[in-house]
Design brief:
single chain, 354 residues, alpha+beta, SH3 type barrels, Alpha-Beta Plaits, 4 domains, 6-stranded mixed sheet, 3-stranded antiparallel sheet, 10 helices, flat
Length: 354
């Protein structure tokens, strides 16, 4: 009985070490991730991997094993790690290399809209092995970095993009009339430099593409929907039927009767100017909330870094300036120092909220 008790007690240091390692790793991981949005730090991931491996070694060395047994356990652990790396290296190393490549190219960042052959969404995080996007359904989707490297990725430029819609109309309406009406619809929803293209001559209809430029890239879904609404309203209000000649209706209609919905105001909200896009209560604010938060955090960090660099330049310039040029430099330095303090407080508050 005493032997068994001593044997069990000999395992207590190892059990205590195991519990301590788990707690330390959990607390360290929580501390490193606290308030972190957007980029997942490669340093943090490498540090956690190294600490985990160290914790495993500590647990092994605290177990009541002989030198021979401990050596065998370490050898077995080495074989297992080697086998895992060999079996998973195809995807593991490939995704890691792809992640480094995406960071080097830096074609997109948190907050950007990206479109691949099968997915569309707003980037929330970029990790070394995966990229996370927020879809139009507000869901978070993880894409392996290798997928983004092997497939073409379209990035919506932050300075603006083209919004367009395609529809088919009959041959009985002249294309010049349609072009004028569609351009009016594009202008009415706030698009600049509107254009209309004839993209195809089908058997029973003509396919048109209408589009224009917008710099409101954070409201793509709203503007696309608004463009389609304006197309419907403009064509219907000008007596153009949006049906192809193949349209079949089982009711008997007067040949002069057109299939049009009930009339509506071209601007239902008199308080809202035509073409204006409301900044609040848009679907994008709810759908891409995490991506917007990541983008805002990235912008604040970038501004903070630039402001600190400018402060260093001003400090050097003030030391070498004379009395006539020193005063404006000192005013700029004081104003910039206040801005740096505000940015630091804002970033700290954002981390606390997250």
């Amino acid at each position: 009985m005493t032997f068994e008790t001593d044997r069990l007690l000999s395992f207590l240091p190892g059990l205590a070490a195991l519990v301590a390692v788990i707690l330390v790793l959990a607390l360290l991981n929580f501390w490193l991730r606290r308030g972190q949005t957007g980029e997942i730090s490669v340093t943090r991931q490498a540090l956690m991997l190294l600490l985990t491996a160290t914790g495993v070694l500590i647990v092994i060395f605290t177990l009541p094993l002989s030198e021979v047994s401990r050596g065998q356990v370490l050898s077995l652990l080495g074989i297992v790690i080697t086998a895992v790396i060999a079996l998973s290296s195809t995807t593991f190393v490939a995704n890691a290399m792809a992640g480094l490549m995406l960071r080097a190219v830096n074609s997109f960042k948190p907050g950007d809209f990206i479109r691949s052959p099968n997915f569309f969404g707003k980037v929330t995080e970029r990790g070394i092995f995966h990229t996370e996007i927020q879809t139009e359904d507000r869901d978070l989707m993880t894409l392996p970095n290798m997928y983004l490297v092997n497939n073409p990725v379209t990035v919506v430029h932050h300075s603006g993009t083209i919004i367009s819609a395609t529809l088919s109309l009959g041959y009985d309406v002249h294309h010049a009339t349609i072009e004028q009406l569609l351009n009016e619809a594009a202008e009415a929803c706030g698009l600049t430099d509107p254009f209309t293209l004839v993209v195809d001559l089908n058997d029973f209809s003509v396919s048109y593409r209408v589009g224009g430029f917008t710099d409101e890239v954070n409201q793509l879904l709203t503007i696309k929907s608004k463009l389609r609404k304006k197309i419907l309203s403009t064509l219907h209000n000008n007596g153009v039927e949006i049906v192809s000649p193949a349209f079949m209706n089982q009711r008997q209609l007067d040949p002069e009767q057109k299939v049009l919905p009930a009339g509506e105001s071209t601007n239902p909200d008199p308080e809202q100017p035509a073409g204006a896009v409301q900044q609040e209560n848009t679907p994008e604010a709810m759908i891409f909330d995490k991506a917007d938060s990541a983008a805002e955090s990235e912008q604040l960090k970038t501004e903070l870094e630039q402001s600190r660099e400018r402060l260093k330049e001003l400090s050097t310039a003030i030391k070498s300036s004379d009395d006539s040029t020193r005063e404006p430099l000192e005013r700029e330095q004081a104003s910039l120092a206040q801005r740096v303090e505000e940015l630091s407080e804002t970033i700290a508050a954002s981390k606390a909220e997250n």
